[in-house]
Structure formats: C-alpha cells, structure tokens
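Retro notes - structure team

What went well: the batch runner handled both jobs without manual restarts.
What didn't: labels got mixed up in the shared folder, which is why I'm recording both outputs here explicitly, each with its sequence directly above its tokens.

Job 1
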Amino acid sequence: LDEPTAGLDKASEGRFAGLMREHLGDGGMVVAATHLPLGLEGARELQMRVGH
C-alpha cells in the first residue's frame, strides 16, 4: 500500500488500523510505504533511509 492513510480523517485512520491489526492477527502481512508510522503494536517495521 502506498500512503494508505493519506486523505483519511482520524476516525477512518482508526478503522483502517483496526483492519490491519485484524489481518496481522490472522497471520497476514501488510506492506506499506508511508512517511508516518502506522503505530501497529507488535508489527515489524523496516525503515529505509537515503544517504549515509
């Protein structure tokens, strides 16, 4: 997903996060590119940086 919460209001962000938590809890995977942390407790995050 590319910037999955862009343009969402806070309530929609919360619903989306809930869907991702449920999916992860069922053993699923979420791949997302975002400038802001998604705040999914227990999820593994990979941060990519440009430069040194």
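Job 2
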Amino acid sequence: MPMVELLVFFTGIFLIATPVIALILLVRYSKVRSELNRLNEENARQHTSFQRELADLKRQLSAVVHPAAPTSEKPLERPVVAPSPAATKVEDIRVPSPQVELPAPVKLPPAVSVPSPSVQPPLPSVPSEPKPAIPAAGKTPAEVKPSAPVATPQTTPPSVPSSQPSAPRIPAPKPQEPAPIPPASAARVSAPTLLSAYRVSPSRPTLQQRMKTVSAIEETLGTNWLNKLGIIILVVGVALFGIYELGALGPLGKVGISYLASAFLLVGGIFLEKNERYHLLGRTGIGGGWALLFFSTFGIYHVEAMRVLSQNPGALTLDCALMLLVGVAMAFHTLRYRSQFVTGLAFLLGYTTVALSQDTVYSLSAGVFLAIGLVSIVLKMGWFELEVFGILSSYLNHLYWLYRILGIEGAHGRHFEQYHASLALLFFYWLTFRISYIARSIKTDFEEHVSTLAALLNVLLLLGVMKFQSVQPELAY
C-alpha cells in the first residue's frame, strides 16, 4: 500500500509541475525565437550592405581597368574622327585664301612704308612674314579649337627656315587626345554591373548542416537527458535501499553504504567536472552526491531502517543541526559552479528522497532546511525558476505527509496531535519564501514574472494545505 501511495504522490507532483514547466519552456522558447528572428534580420541587413559595397568596389575597379582598354578601341573610333585631319588639310589649303583676303586691310602696308627709304630690300622678306598670317593664326585656333593639332602646326611656321626639325613634333600631341573622352564611356559600360550585384539568391541549408542539426538533437538526448535520468534513478534507488528493512544488513550497514555512495558520486563528480569532455557528467554526479549525502544525514534519525541515533530530543537536535550544516555546505559548494542545473538537481533530489520516508512531523523539518538553503541561493543568483520548484516540493511533501495521516478527505473537522506542529511548519514555509519575494532583486521582465508566480504559488498552496488539515471547517475560507 505505501508503494501505491508513493506512486500517487509522484503522479500528483508530475501533474502539478507539468503546466508550470510548460509555461516556463514556452516563455523561454518565445524569447529564443524572437532573438533568432532579430539575428536573422540583422544578418540579412549586413548581407545587403555587403553586396552594395561589393558592387561599388566592382564599379570602381572597372573604372580603373577600362582606360587601358580604350586604346585598342581607338582605331575603331579613328574613322569617325578621320575627317578632322582632312579638315586640317582643307584648312591648310584655305590658309592661303584668307591670306589673300587678309592683306585687303591696308593696315600692314603703312607700317612697312615707314622703313621704305632704307629698308626696301627686306620688303620681299616682309611678305614672307605675312605668310604665317599671324593674325590669321589668331582666327584659326578660334575656329579649330576642338581639333588641337591644327593650332600647333601654325605656331611653328614663323621660323620655317630654321625650325623645320619642329615638324616631327606634330605627332607628339596625339597621345594627349585619348585622355578626356574615354573615361566617360568606360563608366557607362561598367554601370550595368550594379544590377547583377543585387541579384543574390537566399542561401539554403546544405545537407551537412541538416545532418548536424539532427546529430545535435541525438547528442542532447544521449549526453544530457539520459545522464540526468540515470542519476535520478541511482539516487532514488539508494534511498529506497536504505528505507526498506533487510535482515542481513542492519542500520549501520545501510548508513555506511549510503554515505559511501554519496561520497563516490560527489568526489567522482568533482574530478570529472574538471575535464571538459566529461563536464556535464561530473556536474550531474555532484548534484546527485549532495542529494544522497543530505538523505543519509536525514536518515540516521528519521528513517526507521537507518536509525543509528537514539530517539530523544538531544539526538533530534543533533540531526537537525547536521542537516542544516549539510544544506549550507551544499548551497555554497554548488554556487562555485554557478550552474542552476547542479544546484537544482541537488535540492530537488533532496526533497524527493525526504518525501520517501516521512514518519513523523519532525521529519518535515528537513524541508525547512532545504527551503532556507534554496532561498539563499535564489536571492544571490536570481534563479527564480528554482524557487518555484522549491515551493512546490515543500508544500507537496507536507501535503503527502498529511494524506498518509488523515486520508484522502483530510482532517474534515477531526483533531490530530500534530496539528500545531504542522501549522508551525507551514508558517515557516510561507515566511521563508515570502522573505525571498520581499528581498528579491529583479533585473529582467522574465524574472519579474517568475518571481510573481512564485509568490502566488506560496499563498495559494498555503491556503490549500491549511484547508486540507482544518479542524474547524466552518472557520475556513
């Protein structure tokens, strides 16, 4: 019959804890999903800016590279510009004609007539000077400004007899021609590359990435969940071994085996935790070792099959002091790792093992010590999810003990001896978790929601358990 009651108790814990766990997981999932969406948007934004910068770099690179290419294209463009040299030739032919028209103004002859008494022999040289038609040269560059080479050959003729070697200078200006026009055409050619740079198809996960996702799920199940399940089964198995009486093995042998198993788990977990490969396994061992050590200390007085201390107030006080000492040591040691998993596993397994063997109301004092240690950790680390499970474990353990004494209907107006002690323990539970709510330090909205949920559970479970054990139902709510 006790096994059936135990199964019913665990089923009730599971049914009550499942909605809370689902709510917490849902909130966390929504936060992770929103964070993932934000990161995806940021990644897309950075990808777009990267493509834009890449397109600009391509355009600049093509603008630098293309000026070399137009040299090969010049011969194709030369036929279009070919009439310009012809025009220059025509202009050269026209030059004498304006020379005939230009002498028409008689401005030059009066200037020549001044030296006529003594310088008539140079008069034949004077007409040679009008040949360059210096005033005409002023007109020709104005007309032929687009074709630069026309101006240069006319400047050289003033010294035709002495500067004939300047004729080879005519091809010299030719390399200056390609400089201004080609860059514009090169920029126009590279402009269409911008359109192709923005056409980027969205990346799809490869087969290797999908396989990594599947293997990550398998690794999580194999190294995380099975690991936790194994340590829970081991700790509960050792606790059940200590609870049931065996004729071949007395209380001292059971206590020795229990302490030996807890020391093995604790020391082995500390050793394995230092190795990166067995990091998770080591922390699981640490949590299970502390839970089993607390149960062993609890059992030396409160478990009939493991009792090695005599039943008197002094032994009870000693056992309570030892439990408080183990609880404080458990809290401080698990805080070294700053892992909610290690601390939560140690305390929740401690609650579970205590629930397996509750004979008297004083055995519920272990729940008070666990609650004090748990609240001290919650206030220091801000792990309010752990406080929710601590509240559920404390009140449900107490309710299970009342169920074993009073039955399924509760007190129902019947007085029982442990009523005042039970009421005092319930008050300590409520006060401990109420102090946690008052002295809390909230940093995020999620912590605010979880802490508020813990405060509501503290009040509702207190009223529910007091209703179950009420000896005067007419005074109850």
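One thing worth noting from job 2: The radius of gyration is 50 Å.
We'll revisit the folder naming next retro.
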